[in-house]
Amino acid sequence: MPAAGQHNARVLISGLGPVSCLGFGLEHLTEGILEQAVAQEIERIGPRGRREAALIPDFDLQELIETSRPYLDPQSRSALAAGALALESAAVQHDEVNPLRCGLCYATMLGNLDTQALFQRMVDQKGMRLGSPVLFSHSYPNSTDSLLAIEFALRGYNQNFCGDLLCGAQALESALLALRSGRADLVLAGGADVVRPEVLERLHGGMAPSGPAPAQGAALLVLETQDSIERREGYAFCELSSVVCQGTQGRRNVPGLADALRGAVGQAMGEAGVWEGYIGVVVLCSWVSLYAEAAEAERKALDGFSQVPMVTAKRYLGETFAAGFPLECTVAADVLSDGFVPPKVAYQGKRRGVEFWLERRPEAMLGNSALVVGCTCDLVAAAVLRAL
Fold this sequence. Notes:
The protein is an alpha/beta fold. Helix content is about 35%, strand content about 25%. A hairpin with a 2-residue loop joins β1 (about 10-20) and β2.
């Protein structure tokens, strides 16, 4: 039953924990995107080569969490790092929250493939009787979910999502519903997909040449009711007003996918109580995609926002699978918190005897909300975030 005063509670984003090829935390993400934008603009003038898989830099997990564990799947390590960064960003202290009112919504598309493969090799070489029970317990897609819940004392509402590229959006939607219905005061929500480079390279072979490079990534957000933040005198980046995920009902062509995404956008904006004039920036999750039809459908579905600035992190982070939508929401939350659209980048140098220069011009937002959208052949998603 919903707790008193919690039904339809206002939900805010109080913590951001991005982990990607650009580094750890919000500062590395935003600064890294700007640096990559400059580098890609320079590269555009010269010859372009095949983009390599984007990997998370090596790191020491013990600098972020207190617990020492003898074995962790690479995905679990990165998810734990993202969770620690998000909770640190939210400045959540253990004695300020009730663990039974703290939840977790975690998503992964690929699962713990590295540990599954390692366990399978051990069984093939030594037989089932000598297979490692430690590896086996770390091989499930929900193993990381359990580790996050244990590490951060998240003893309340818990959901694990294993689906397509937008299952991270489903995790955010579930967290929002849990908070609004009074089932939790705080939820750590998002997704991660981190597999070894050899697996990413095999994935690369099945992707379109013009698509994004496969990448490692994790992103967890701290979602919290306004009452909870006020009780602990915390800070919030922005409000998460709505998240809508809908199936495409088998409509896999561009017109069908575009119609499905328009429907999700309309419902998300209706639930948030905003119209097009409130949208100051659109953040694209499928601007480049594994599915060419989904990328084209996203563009067609957003014809009505042609005058609104559009940004995407995927261009610089690569295809991060379940972490993709939460990472784009992280960018949107940062934009709303600052009140400025990320700066445009122009190349500085000389070409054909004409000198060029670099411009970085952040634009003040003309609306107080951000629209985050994503599209695959089976699922569409839209979220509305509002400035405080």
